Amino acid sequence: MNGDAITLEANTEEVVPLSNLGPLFGITDITGNTLNINETGVYQIDYFFQGSSSEAATITFEVFENSNVINGSSIVKTVEANASETFMGSLITKLTDKDEVSLGIKTSTGTTMTLSDGTSAYLNIIKISN
């Protein structure tokens, strides 16, 4: 995503757009922004977002499993207007067959998040054991 934007309403979760899909093994792309797990197991999830908010705000970036926040995935930052911010995390969690995984972002105040040039978001899901 290059210079694209996400319009956020206060305290309303939005799915973070993923512009490209890498190789998928044991995972199915549902919408381009949500991935379906095909095999139960323990997974490492690495996730990233970079962009700037049009308003000063508190931004929450997190990973969702079936529309629920995965414990320990939330990254919360208080940001200044028009300053580039990076959110990056990694976690290990159990996922089951048919789980849907996506990235979400919300803000304390209505704002527009302008995505950074190049790679502005990624979601890597790697099965590490059964």
Short description:
With 130 residues, the protein is mostly beta strands. 0% of the residues lie in helices and 58% in strands.
Explain this structure.
With 130 residues, the protein is mostly beta strands. It has one domain (5-19, 38-129): Jelly Rolls. 0% of the residues lie in helices and 58% in strands. The chain contains no helices and 12 strands. Strands 2, 3, 4, 6, 7, 8 and 10 form a 7-stranded antiparallel beta sheet that branches. Strands 1, 5, 9, 11 and 12 form a 5-stranded antiparallel beta sheet that branches. A hairpin with a 2-residue loop joins β6 (57-65) and β7 (68-69). The model has no long low-confidence stretch (mean pLDDT 93).
SSE series: EEEEEEEEEEEE
Radius of gyration: 14 Å
Any idea what the shape is?
elongated
At the first level of CATH, the class is: Mainly Beta
Supply the CATH architecture. Answer: Sandwich
Residues in helices, as a percent range:
under 10%
Please tally the helical runs, counting DSSP H or I stretches of 4 or more residues: 0
The structural class is mainly beta
The overall strand count is 12
The name of the CATH topology is Jelly Rolls
What's the story with the biggest beta sheet? 7 strands, antiparallel
Unreliable residue runs = none
- The domain tally reads 1
Approximately how much beta-strand content do the residues carry?
Answer: over 45%
Distance between the termini: 34 Å
Q: Mean pLDDT score, rounded?
A: 93
